[in-house]
Amino acid sequence: MNKKSIRDIDVKNKKVFVRADLNIPLDDNGDITDETRIISSLPTIDYLIKNNAKIILASHLGRPKGKFVEKLKMDPVAKTLEKHLGIEIKKTNKVTSDEVKNKIKDLKSGDVLLLENLRFDPREKSNDDSFSRELAELADIYVNDAFGTSHRRHASMVGICKHIPSVMGFLLEKELSTLSSLLEKPDHPFIAILGGSKISDKIGVVKSLLNVVDTIIAGGGMCYTFLKSIGYEIGNSLLEEDMIEYCKQVLDEFENIGKKFILPEDTIVAKEFNKDSIFKTVKIDKIPKGWMGLDIGLKTINKYKEEILRAKTIFWNGPMGVFEWESFEKGTKEIAFAVVESEAQSVVGGGDTIAAIKKYNVADKISYITTGGGASLKFLEGVKLPAVEALLDK
């Protein structure tokens, strides 16, 4: 948090390049299904409008792999921004071109110009310096408000900062402040709820949380590798063979310092990975050969809820099961309700976890929803985010 923000610079009548994270989900018709990231970017854009900046807004959308893809154009984002800001959003058909430069020349203070999808240019992801220079030449000041991609070394995230004064936007500042408070001054008991499919995605964050949390409760596909590491037969449940020894070490470390790492006592198993599969609840030591665990069982749910309701701080990343399918959603659903029923400060991150809390209509009762799943895990691991490091120091 020793980085400069837009509060620290004069933006009046300046051309300000805002790198936002407007990578929103679209349905098959090209309609936006979740406006969260757009809404999260509004405070920075609104501040710049009110302070008479000339705003050049840029983001990626989807994975076009360096090529033009019609359905990944930024047009629906422009329309949604117009709805929320109540002003015309000008838009370009390219990222850098004479057309773009001419439109920027015509900007008046308070205007907003949205560039086309940054990832239509293959130089964005390769952090090509020529592309970084082209972007920097469009503006006087650069603002990073894209926390969700701040762990990426891309041209619009890192390279551009070499060529233009670069500061934080309000969203990036809030994300860093909230996540820092989890590591530095959480109220105790502090519980981390970790789920999702792979423990390999969370190696670093588990090690980091060891120093600050009181308890980790585990679910999702990742918990079966932990169970395998202490001798349970897990049938055809998700398993990362190369993580077994690591999982055993983690459990030993938690035990040695007197902290709790709680694993399921029962699980809902299915005969096959199918939403209509035959399923049943079994104790962890009774998983039938050939069956797979797809959710935590009721006994585990109740045990986890007891821990959650005692917590003062909660960090949740990863669902408890395949919540997209009705037969295997109870664990995730009940944990979501317990989190909002608790009096804890709750921080939720990760695309699937956010989708779950929205599915169960509890998102507005979560203290803070981080917009960057991968970035938030990297930050909590203690990894320095390259796009934050590139900004000006105070």
Provide structural commentary.
By secondary structure, the chain is an alpha/beta fold. The protein has 2 domains: 6-171, Phosphoglycerate kinase, N-terminal domain (Rossmann fold), CATH 3.40.50; 178-381, Rossmann fold. The chain is 33% helix and 16% strand. It contains 13 helices and 15 strands. The protein has helices at 36-50, 75-85, 98-105, 129-136, 170-184, 203-209, 223-229, 244-256, 298-310, 330-341, 351-359, 373-381, 386-389, and strands at residues 15-20, 54-58, 89-91, 112-114, 141-145, 166-168, 190-194, 215-218, 260-262, 266-270, 279-283, 292-296, 313-317, 345-349, 368-369. The strands form 3 sheets. A 6-stranded parallel sheet has the order 3-4-2-1-5-6. Helix 1 (36-50) crosses helix 2, helix 7 packs across helix 8 and helix 9 (298-310) runs parallel beside helix 10 (330-341). The longest helix is centred in the N-terminal third of the chain and has 15 residues, at 36-50. The relative contact order is 0.13. The mean pLDDT is 95.
In a nutshell, what does this entry contain?
With 394 residues, the chain is of the alpha/beta class. It is built from 13 helices and 15 strands. Strand 10 and strand 11 form a beta hairpin.
